Amino acid sequence: MSLFGAALPSRTRSTKSSPADVRRNNRQLIFSLLFPTNQYSRADLGRLTGLSRVAVSDVVGQMLDEGLLRETGQAPSGGKGKRGTLLSIDIDRLNIISLDLTQDHMLHGAVTNLLGQALRHAEITLGADDRVSMEMISELIEKMMGMTEGTVIGIGIASPGVVDGGVVKRSTWLDWHDMDLATPLQERYGINVTVTNDATAAMLTERFFGQGDRNMIFIRIESGIGSAVLINDMPVKGEMHAAGEIGHISIDLNGPQCPCGKRGCLETTISGSALRKQLAGASENERKNILSTAGKHLGQALSMPVGLLDMADVCVYGQPDIINTTFIDAAQAYLDASTASTFHKHTTIRRCECGPDITVQGEAIAVLVHYLSQ
Predict the structure, then answer these.
(1) Model confidence pLDDT, tens digit, residues 303-318
(2) 3-state DSSP call for residue 139?
(3) Fewer CB within 10 Å, N or C, the chain?
(4) Are 218 and 239 in a shared domain?
(5) Cβ 266 vs Cβ 246: under 8 Å
């Protein structure tokens, strides 16, 4: 199973699939092989998927008409036969509107292509209280609707907090409880709306356009702290869609009060906001001690999930003044000391190198995954 929901055809079927299900699976499978930048001929896709020539031709023809794929030229000659025509993702005809609700003092959005690459940016400045309202979100969407040049296949919103479907069940950062974003926006614009946890969205960018592989833990340290887990290319959501809430693991039961109700949560001690308060006016030596302690706390919080899931890759995203060598080295040292064994592959903690569009790009990918599942 891939992130796009596709599975290779099974030789033995325990249940009979409907023609619509088969066609959807074939479409997802072909798209996942080409995404983001691969090029294959129809014959290549048939060999890779096991689908018949007729099935490949039928699905590819529809995807070409839809604007998902394009023909990009002739395949290299492989013998006496006729050279096939290469196919790739079409980045010119379809657009996605992607919003990022994690920025300080503003709402940020972008109109993207199918690779999540920003074509146009837009933003709205928040008020003095930094409150985000549905009216502001709609205003930003309206702004971006006027900037699109292709058909919009979906609207995506990346939000901090626990997300279930189109509802933000709880976000301490936004002070939201059971905030349904998808329903009113879908009714207003007549377009599917996808809502994704911000760390999960950013992880998708790292997976496809960074150094991430099929299995990783992704940590996002900004004003708050979030994380996401990818196992065999499938994001882990959890029983109550709250997987990844590492920011609300308490590392000091007598520590500062957290908005979630507990004390000493990771978010109260090593989030970007908390660390900048500690770093204000600190000397160079004090800065190193503060960041080293923060890195140690992250390593402490990671030791259990890394050991439990046998994960070898931990990627940390954040501003370089905080997520730097001092921070990463301290986290790595603690994790090594607490998890090293002969039956686990060494886990590497590394800094994410993706740029500032990491969230809107990843949210666009989430929209695309949802679009292909329909």
Answers:
(1) 999 989 999 999 999 9
(2) helix
(3) C
(4) yes
(5) yes
